[in-house]
Design goal:
Layout lengths: L6 H11 L7 E4 L9 H16 L3 E6 L9 H13 L7 E3 L4 H13 L3 E4 L3 H7 L17 H12 L9 E4 L14 E5 L13 E3 L1 H11 L4 E5 L6 H10 L7 E5 L3 E2 L6 H9 L14 H7 L3 H10 L8 E2 L1 H12 L5 E2 L1 E2 L2 E6 L8 E6 L9 E6 L2 E5 L19 E4 L4 E9 L5 E9 L16 E2 L2 E2 L4 E8 L27 E8 L11 E4 L3 E5 L10 E6 L8
Parallel strand pairs: 1-2, 2-3, 8-9, 10-11, 12-25, 14-20, 18-21, 23-27
Antiparallel strand pairs: 4-5, 5-6, 6-7, 13-24, 14-17, 15-16, 17-22, 18-19, 19-20, 23-24, 25-26, 26-27
Helix pairs in contact: 2-11, 7-8, 11-12
This protein binds adenosine-5'-triphosphate and magnesium ion (MG).
Adenosine-5'-triphosphate (ATP) binds next to helix 2 and strand 8.
Enzyme class: ligase
GO biological process, one term: glutaminyl-tRNA aminoacylation
Organism: Bacillus yapensis
Length: 551
């Protein structure tokens, strides 16, 4: 987190100075029930970054206590994403490796009279729980003897009961103003195969009970989580105290990161994938780390963005232009500039010799000379962008129109002499003349033109596909009509992906997946790793060149 100050950093510093810990230990604890998204990047940067600042340690811990939703695919993807973001964990841990310890802690609670087996159904438990204004009601099974509880809990473990037939609950206070302390369920029965422990267990600890124990087992000093867990902190502390763990982790909450237009709920992201609204978890429109990677965002840009959002208790919504700002900043000096035509219009230079081809020098990045110069062919036929020509232009249109002269980037001035149309009146070809005196780099100062167009040589250009993106979900505050259920799926943008077929410079023939370029006047693009073939590169638009963001 560099040296920026934030309240968590201050707490850690005080705790170290007070001699509470020898070193800071944090963990990033994803549940492997989906892919990581931009919100998780915040938690990753905070956990790894802060521990790093104090030369501490960070574990990657899979919080895998719910076998029904978890999968090895997610475990693998999460590891890859954390590494790609530039972080290396100290230890790789799985909550499921601690099931035996957790079971023993539950037995300890029973022995202390702090937990009991309840036969109420889930629905009854909910009814008995009370509300914010009314206290809860005690379960008729609350006062079972320690012996009976021990026996029943063991029989739960042994698989003698069906799902939902019994639960283990902490015995705290049914009239606590904090509902989380009204005898929360700590173990449930689930006859399900676990991705890690297989069929060894049929009872699983609840998250709120498991999490503090996981932290204590790993000697985590500061357990950082998002603000919605604030009300859980008293129970977190109760578990740590009553389970008599040696290590005493401390929970601290920080505000979630929400990005405008970005879905940051794994459940919703999974729905987009399962219902095929997108091309998988790594669809470039997804705010997942793998989607951002395939889109062309860099780890540096994501890290800098997250750091710039700061660490506080509040959870605001961040403008998506802010994310884009950081990727432009990062790519400005790194990405070679090149020319690509997204919607081609042929231009014939009628006074250029038929069979001649010349090689022109083009700098790879005017802002970074070290990137050198490439050579691009120029001959009688080229492609320009369709919207760089207008037959009947408005005032202040400085690009190509009949009688007008423009500069071709890295090449010559050309003048529009004639417009060729098909039988329907569509413009199919432009005829121009060029002036050999105006070659770029020769210092020609005879006259000036106002427009500069990008182009590619028609004979040598490489066909390429461009994938242009808009937000997947539109902001739409519109209320649902009466009796109608409106979901985020109703706000899906039908134009979130546009695919166009164009051309790129011949030296782009062998581009590699994930290489990034700035196409002159269009924006930054990434070579798509999924659809690119040896015959045809596919480019994902990362961001356009224009920015509306002010830091
Ligand atoms: P769910 O628990 O509903 O599946 P989750 O987003 O909380 O979703 P976890 O795998 O539990 O997913 O998250 C791992 C860590 O990332 C948690 O500590 C969580 O608080 C943190 N986290 C998740 N979303 C955000 C967010 N938008 N901003 C900051 N931190 C987040
Ligand atoms: Mg969670």
């Amino acid at each position: 987190m560099e040296n920026s100050s934030n309240f968590i950093r201050s707490i850690m510093k005080e705790d170290l100075e007070a001699g509470k810990h020898d070193k800071i230990v944090t963990r990033f604890p994803p549940e492997p029930n989906g892919y990581l998204h931009i919100g998780h990047a915040k938690s990753i940067v905070i956990n790894f970054g802060l521990a790093d600042d104090f030369n501490g340690l960070t574990n990657l811990r899979f919080d895998d206590t719910n076998p029904l939703k978890e999968d090895q695919e997610y475990v693998d993807a999460i590891k890859e994403d954390v590494k790609w973001l530039g972080y290396d964990w100290d230890e790789l841990r799985f909550a499921s490796d601690y099931f035996e310890v957790m079971y023993e802690k539950a037995v300890l609670l029973i022995k202390k009279g702090k937990a009991y087996v309840d036969d109420l159904t889930a629905e009854q438990i909910r009814e008995y729980r009370g509300t914010l204004t009314e206290p809860g009601k005690e379960s008729p099974y609350r006062n079972r003897s320690v012996e009976e509880n021990l026996e029943l809990f063991e029989r739960m473990r042994n698989g003698e009961f069906a799902n939902g037939e019994k639960v283990l609950r902490a015995k705290i206070d049914m009239s606590s103003p904090n509902i989380n302390l009204r005898d929360p369920v700590i173990y449930r029965i689930s006859h399900a195969t676990h991705h890690n422990t297989g069929d060894k267990w049929c009872i699983y600890p609840m998250y709120a009970f498991a999490h503090p124990l996981e932290d204590a087992i790993e000697d985590v000093t500061h357990s950082l989580c998002t603000v919605e867990f604030e009300d859980q902190r008293p129970f977190y502390d109760w578990v740590i105290a009553e389970c008599e763990t040696e290590s005493k982790p401390r929970q601290i909450e920080f505000g979630r990161l929400n990005v405008e237009n970005a879905v940051t709920s794994k459940r919703k992201l999974k729905q987009l994938v399962d219902e095929k609204f997108v091309d998988g978890w790594d669809d470039p429109r997804m705010p997942t780390i793998s989607g951002l990677r395939r889109r062309g965002f860099t780890p540096e840009a994501i890290r800098e963005f997250v750091k710039a959002t700061g660490v506080s208790k509040g959870s605001g919504v961040v403008d998506s232009a802010m994310v884009e700002h950081f990727v432009r900043e990062d790519l400005k000096l790194k990405a070679p500039r090149t020319m690509g035509i997204l919607r081609p219009l042929k231009v014939v230079i009628t006074n250029y010799p038929e069979d001649q081809v010349e090689m022109l020098d083009a700098e790879n990045n005017p802002e970074n000379e070290e990137m050198g110069v490439r050579q691009i062919p120029f001959s009688r036929e080229i492609y320009i962008e369709q919207d760089d020509f207008m037959e009947d232009p408005p005032k202040k249109y400085f690009r190509l129109f009949p009688g007008n002269e423009v500069r071709l980037k890295h090449a010559y001035f050309i003048k529009c002499e004639d417009v060729i149309k098909d039988e329907n009146g569509n413009v199919v070809e432009i005829h121009c003349t060029y002036d050999p005196e105006t070659k770029s780099g020769t210092g020609f100062t005879g006259r000036k033109v106002k427009g500069t167009l990008h182009w590619v040589d028609a004979k040598h250009a490489v066909p390429a596909e461009f994938r242009l993106y808009e937000p997947l979900i539109l902001d739409n505050e519109e209320e649902a009509a009466d009796g109608e259920e409106k979901t985020f799926l109703d706000n899906i943008n039908p134009n979130s992906l546009e695919i166009v077929q164009g051309f790129v410079e011949p030296n782009m023939k062998d581009v590699k997946p994930q290489e990034k370029f700035q196409f002159f006047r269009h924006g930054y693009f990434n070579v798509d790793p999924k659809y690119t073939t040896p015959e045809k590169p596919v480019f994902n638009l990362i961001v356009s060149l224009k920015s509306s963001f002010k830091l």
